[in-house]
Amino acid sequence: MDRITQWVSSQDVPTDLTIRIADSIFPLHKAVMVPRCGYIRRAVAAATKDPSAAVELDLSALPGGADAFEKAARYCYGANFEITARNAAALRCAAAFLDMQHPADLARRVEEFLAQAGLRALPSAVTVLRSCEALLPAAAELGVVRRAADAVALRICNEALFPTRTPPGWWTAELAVLSPASFQKVVTALRCRRADPRVLANAASAYAELALAEVLADPRDREDQRALLESVVDVLPSAADAPIPAAFLCRLLHAAVTTEASAKTCRDLELRVAAVLDQATTGDLLGVALDGAGERVRNTDTVRRVIAAFVERQEASSESRRSRRASLSGGAELDPGAMEKVARTVDELAAELATEESLAISKFVGVAGAVPKEARASHDCVYRAVDIYLKTHPSLDEIEREKVCSVMDPLKLSYQARLHASQNKRLPLQAVLSALYYDQLKLRSGADDGWDTQTAAGKARAQARADASLARENEALRSELARMRAFVSGMQPSKGSGSSRSAPAAKKASFLGSVSRTLSRLNPFKGGWAKDTASIADGGGRDSRDTMPHVVKPKRRRFSMS
């Protein structure tokens, strides 16, 4: 039946009702449409008081347009038509707009179809939800959008638990046809059903992946790509609800920067990447830093902000952990080795960026210095990046080279790295001197490298040096005792006159004082009797009572050496 020229089977009945919807014209009969459509009945009554007069109405505001009205008119005339997942929502909205209150009205027929077929399978539920996108806000007011989104979420949860097709994640491709707003409603329904976070992450990643492929397919249509990307980022679930892989978030961030997305979108993605930065690889961050063609380094500021956000996040986490320990309360903690992982990744990234000849010093220092120096157990990797940058930029003066080297600490280099740095002519003099000074300091303290004193071999060498020093002192004492024995042996036969005895006695006392002073160095009670005795003996020719009135002169005893 031609909807524009003929709506009745008999050519003898003239039409008296004309419905215009945009460019479509429907010649109808008031006798058929008025009893079944309350909206048309009221419009006809308002247009004319003559029941036999022809009336023309404009229903361009009808949800679903001419297609939906055609099927509604067929239903009023008793003609056959098919309700499908594609037109069910439009027919439901059209029936509500036309106020079709017949006992067997169109709205009830559509509701039965949705309950029995339209929302019972995932593909058809997605189709119904997609068809509602052009029917807003009528579809939302009638609850069709909510019911369709909830049906999609239910089927997704069932598929995640009990897959009915292979591969198990086939359902993610079904979501690609939805608009970002419809996808957001599905995510909300999944949260309400307490879906597994992995299900949310898979759904969000798959949807964003397809959207990203569409964005990158035609780089010329920048405006539409920007709008699509911003809307996709807005509907992504939070990291707490669904942790999205770091590699994919880095790709999204690169696309956002390339398409010049809004600052809000870029900042949102930067924070998302920072939350999972310890899972990112050097290649992921390098992809963010490169331009759209992937050939030149352009977006180092974005990478620096991501690293800075990660560092702030770690510091805040450390503060909260200390607070929890102080209050003796539990809670999940971040990986304590995350900072070290990120520092190693940043050092490798800096080495890759250093090969770019047009990379400014401030850009290099901004990326390499974004991680605190104390986060690195060793600075060998960052020294490698610095050396590559200095090799790529040989025309730098001394001050510029010092600025490049400011990101590393020469005292945290390994022995091999310090040895290389001390012979590296590209380094500034200050860095070379720092490395040499550290080596000399370690040599003076008896260690061969930065951690040698902590090893078993280092402790053994230190003990050997102490033993050798003690042996030398013992040998010196032994020699002194041998000389004293020889002197005493020579003095025993001589027992002559007093004058002859006084001189040897003075020499003997002086010699004993020397021995006492030698032994006092080994005596743990320095300042004791040995020192006092020596002082008395040395003053043998004078009256010691005048100089030391409180010291009692010990009796002279004969020394015998066995």
From TrEMBL:
GO biological process: protein ubiquitination
Positions with biased composition (Basic residues): 552-562
Gene3D superfamilies reported for this sequence: Potassium Channel Kv1.1, Chain A (3.30.710.10)
Pathway(s) annotated for this protein in UniProt: Protein modification; protein ubiquitination
Keywords: Ubl conjugation pathway
Protein name in UniProt: Root phototropism protein 2-like
Record carries keyword Transport: no
PANTHER family noted in UniProt: OS12G0117600 PROTEIN
Domain of life the protein comes from: Eukaryota
Alphabetized InterPro entries for the sequence: BTB/POZ_dom (IPR000210), NPH3/RPT2-like (IPR043454), NPH3_dom (IPR027356), SKP1/BTB/POZ_sf (IPR011333)
